[in-house]
Amino acid sequence: MVVVDNARKMISKTIDIVVTSVLQTTAGKMIFGRFIEAGAGAHGIAAPQPVRAQAAAAPQAASS
Questions:
Q1: Mean pLDDT, to the nearest integer, of 24-43?
Q2: 48: Cα within 13 Å, side-chain hemisphere
Q3: What is the DSSP string of 1-61?
Q4: Which of 28, 45, 50, 62 is the most exposed place for a label (fewest CB within 10 A)?
Q5: What does the alpha-carbon distance between residue 62 and residue 64 come to, in Å, rounded to a whole number?
Q6: What does the alpha-carbon distance between residue 13 and residue 9 come to, in Å, rounded to a whole number?
Q7: Which candidate, 17, 1, 25, 2, places its Cα nearest to that of 52?
Q8: What is the Cα–Cα distance from 37 to 10, expressed in whole angstroms?
Q9: Do residues 35 and 10 touch, judged by C-beta distance below 8 A?
Q10: How do residues 36-59 score in pLDDT, each as one tens digit?
Q11: From CA 35, how far away is CA 19, in angstroms rounded?
């Protein structure tokens, strides 16, 4: 489940968010984030750039 602050008007749209926290539950992960509108950088605060996470490689089995 993904929960995004300040994004009610963006429901059903694909947007970039800034992830603020991740919570692992027995049912899966909950990802919390914030939506920063395009004009937010105009107030002297630079909008964070989205970061794409890369999955870690699976450990390789030792050969004998």
A1: 80
A2: 12
A3: -EEEET-GGGTTS----EEEEEEEETTEEEEEEE---GGGGGGT-PPPPP----PPPPPPP
A4: 62
A5: 7
A6: 9
A7: 17
A8: 10
A9: yes
A10: 877 655 454 555 566 565 554 555
A11: 9
Distance CA 28, CA 49 (A): 26
Q: How far is CA 52 from CA 9, 18, 39, 55, 64, in A?
A: 24, 11, 22, 10, 37
d(CA 49, CA 64): 45
Angle, alpha carbons 51-53-59 (nearest 5°): 160
User: What's the pLDDT score for residue 7?
Assistant: 87
